[in-house]
Design goal:
Helix 6 (258-277) runs antiparallel to helix 8 and helix 8 packs antiparallel against helix 9. The termini are far apart. By secondary structure, the chain is α+β, with helices and mostly antiparallel strands. The chain has helices at 24-60, 81-88, 95-98, 205-213, 246-251, 258-277, 327-332, 337-354, 378-387, 398-402; strands at residues 126-129, 155-164, 167-174, 180-187, 194-196, 202-204, 223-228, 232-238, 243-245, 280-281, 290-293, 299-301, 308-309. The chain folds into 2 domains: 109-238, Phosphorylase Kinase, domain 1 (2-Layer Sandwich); 243-408, Transferase(Phosphotransferase), domain 1, CATH 1.10.510.10.
Length: 413
Amino acid sequence: GRAMPPARPRPRVGLSRARPRPSRRGLASARLWPCWRWRCWAGISAGGGGGIAAFCLRLARPRPRPRLLPGPAEHTRGAAAPAASAAASPARAPPLGSAAAGPEPPVPRSRERTPGHGRPGTGEGRSGVVAGPGPSADSRVPPAGTAQEALQERYRLGSLLGRGGFGRVFSATRLSDGAPVAIKRVPRNRVRHWGELPDGTSAPLEIVLLAKVSTGFPGVVQLLEWLELPNCIMMVLERPEQCQDLQRFIRARRFLPEEEARELFRQVLEAVRHCTSCGVLHRDIKPENILVDLDTGQAKLIDFGCGTYLQDTVYTHFAGTLSYSPLEWNDFGWYHGEAATVWSLGILLHQMVCGEHPFRRGQNLSWGQLPLPQRLSQECKDLIRWCLSMNSLDRPALEDLFCHPWMWDIPLP
């Protein structure tokens, strides 16, 4: 039949069971109960109702365990403890940084290996100042590496100017002299490449490139100051009193007359030539990245977040705006720096004189001829089509653009 389960042994009558040994937690609770009872009595008798509430909050809050500082701090009776704790705890981001907090969509970034592309460790905060004309010549701004004064004590934050995968840009005013500036906040995890400034300081590549091209040249936005915080990079940039990006400048007028477009286009060419002479490739030339001073008509190239070092060999990774990428990148996955720049300049000129992107409606470039309005001069049409040649070898060099008849308002024969 069926096997019966073994019978349980009956306890002997008159013998008590062995009591279980108390756990360590129980012993600790038993030992601490007199202490907690005394604290409760002290809290109740000290402050009445308010004392009880405060005491309950104090009991609910976990008490941190004391940390022993290794090394000399143990032998100096805590004399070195404040300095060690200040160095170990990262600097707190000022309200200017926290105002732009929030998730932002990622943006495709280049992966070329550049000098100093490694990411350094987070420190308690670093800063730097790039001297130059205008607002950056203020001697009251602290020198590099001594950012002890908080940004909110030197600048008054204004409205949001722009946002994107790079971060956010705010208008601000420098309190020392009332100069208008722009403060760009880039989350630290968005910084993909790092470089080295002339003084040996490690900095994001965008700051390194700006330091190469912005000092003393009016066609590129001036970097006034930068600050590295644990969670973000803050850049203080010049901002004209009355300014507008070229995209809005064109939309307000539908399109620009050739005379006005010629002057602005020449300034952009000079800025691009200056950058290439400094060994910098911008890689994101478009109307949104060109600032127009409405008082003086000066055009300034801004936003070097997609920039890199100029090289003679091909680039095999793209950074910038895909709608401005050259045909060779879309077809073969490579491009040369100068040929890609000329291509984007051709799109820029088309947007100036036509008011729209040449390929917004999906025109097929294999048709050969790009349709252009009849009102444009033949010289302007020739320059746009030359820059937008399907074969990169057929496009002009930067210096060829300066010599084109349209740039000098000379009719073609």
